[in-house]
Write the structure tokens for this entry.
Amino acid sequence: MIKRISQMPLYLLSILLLLFTGLPFFIMVNTSFKQQFEFMSSPWSLPENFSFANYALVFESSFLKYFTNSLILAVVSVVLTIVLAAMASYPLSRMKFKLNRPIFLLFTVGMMIPIHTTLIPIYILTSKIGLYDSLAGLIGPYVAFALPVSVIIFTQFMKDIPKELEESAKIDGCGHFRLFWRIIFPLLTPAVATVAIYNFIQIWNEFIFALVLTNSSETATLPLGLREFYGEFSVNVPGIMAALTLGSLPLLLVYFVAQEKIVKGLAAGSVKG
């Protein structure tokens, strides 16, 4: 009983954090079921009559096209980032050579570069190589800016993997390539989940590069597509909230799935044989 009372402040803090983070999401979903006039008259109340008209309006627009473009970009970019970052982190964490430290510092410096300062050179480069207004032209910058933090996460995680596993595999005749994919990479589940969550959210919500490097509705992403709900003299707020609700579902799905992987990976890593 005394232990429960002593934990009351933690419970109260958890409830406050839940309200602080969950209230905006509740308001978004609640508003998506309202008509425009009802939102203007009583924005904070529950809908008098739950209406799915805003969701029907979303599907009548080009929402699915924008959703598909964002999904392709996020999935391809995250997969490439995980593979490239993990492969780059392997020699940085498991091998000793003269340029080990300088290369790792370069990745650290890459995190400090403001991405918006690179808009003009990336635009010029993308135009010259013929990738302007294409999804492929966006994948390159997304992967490039996701690599520094991903390499750091993987490198630090690989350093904690016991070297006895690597030595045993080498005794059995396992080369570096097979050692990485068969032994090291399967142990990176928590790091992979962390990198996937972080980069998927960043890429899914990215706006400025998609605005600069695309110029047509065929290659527009979901953040750009939300502009369809902005009129010349008015804004369809419930329609935007319906689109945001649908657009947030992949983020929630990725987070909950990857969160479970992180917990399982940490639990597995804590067991000593």
Notes: Residues 237-269 form the longest helix (33 residues). The CA atoms of residues 20 and 177 lie 47 Å apart. The radius of gyration is 23 Å.
